Amino acid sequence: MAASAVSPDTPPLCEIEGLQIGFRTHDGTLVEAVRDLSLTLAPGERLGIVGESGSGKSLTGRALLGLLPAAAQCRARALRFDGRDLLTLSARERRKLCGSAMGMILQDPKYSLNPVMTVGKQMAEAFRLREPGLRGRALRERIVDALAAVEIRDPARVADAYPHELSGGMGQRVMIAMMVSTGPRLLVADEPTSALDVAVSMQVLAVLDDMIARHRTGLVFISHDLPLVMSFCDRVAVMYAGRVVETCAARDLVHATHPYTRGLLAATPPLSNPPDALPVLERDPAWLTEAAR
């Protein structure tokens, strides 16, 4: 997949400055999960966020859409989307914005799909948020076409199925179809291809490609797959313990300078002649305080 061309003079679609997310323990101690994070995203840009599990990648994406857990304590110097200050919006305004202009593909479809509604009814809700007049046969055709685009066999049958009747990979494809087909301005994709085989993953990436080309969607692509991020994204932010320790063009990730990033790359097994054991990442406490590269 070829990365998109984004002019450096393009005004940002999203701006995050000084994002802090923490959780209180039972004794009142505040544990910081995201620390002073700052990022920007341009229209039509693909920003990859990589790092180990627990580094704060998903929380960062959720903060943009206002989908943090109730126990989370979140503050930021600035959190803007398309020129609007998200910190000043009411909960109702944030929900409306999420339904019409922003979307998120969650890592586990079990927590994304309503178990008591058919796939088709849930997709119909998503379509009507952007096109209230879409009904009847035209709506049904849009739903079936969206499911077919992500390589779902017999999409008409799946549209009438309930989530529990689908496999994990198929549920993930339903979520991708639902989010992509409405053409959001911003899409946060949290491990969107992790539950899919290689062939279907490539088809899903092609669907994301088409969405970005048609709608100039800004994509935040959260992943553990560094080779995929290098080939699919424009820029990469590397997170460690809630902080961004390095940012670079995706094509330059192989030349990363931060030892944490180099450790992640070294831990990626090669396709040919894999070693008997992968290197163990040795952490340095200084990574928690030094400036991002």
Verbal overview:
This protein has 293 residues and is an alpha/beta fold. It has a domain at 110-183. It is built from 9 helices and 11 strands. The protein has helices spanning 57-65, 91-100, 119-130, 136-149, 155-159, 168-181, 198-215, 226-232, 259-266, and strands at 14-24, 30-41, 46-50, 73-75, 78-81, 84-85, 102-105, 186-190, 218-222, 235-240, 243-249. The protein has a 6-stranded mixed beta sheet with strand order 7-8-9-3-10-11, with helices on both faces. Strand 5 (78-81) and strand 6 form a beta hairpin. The longest helix has 18 residues, at 198-215. The protein is globular, with a radius of gyration of 19 Å. Keywords: ATP-binding, Cell inner membrane, Cell membrane, Membrane, Nucleotide-binding, Transport.
Topology:
Layout: E1 14-24, E2 30-41, E3 46-50, H1 57-65, E4 73-75, E5 78-81, E6 84-85, H2 91-100, E7 102-105, H3 119-130, H4 136-149, H5 155-159, H6 168-181, E8 186-190, H7 198-215, E9 218-222, H8 226-232, E10 235-240, E11 243-249, H9 259-266
Helix pairs in contact: 3-4, 3-6, 4-6, 6-7
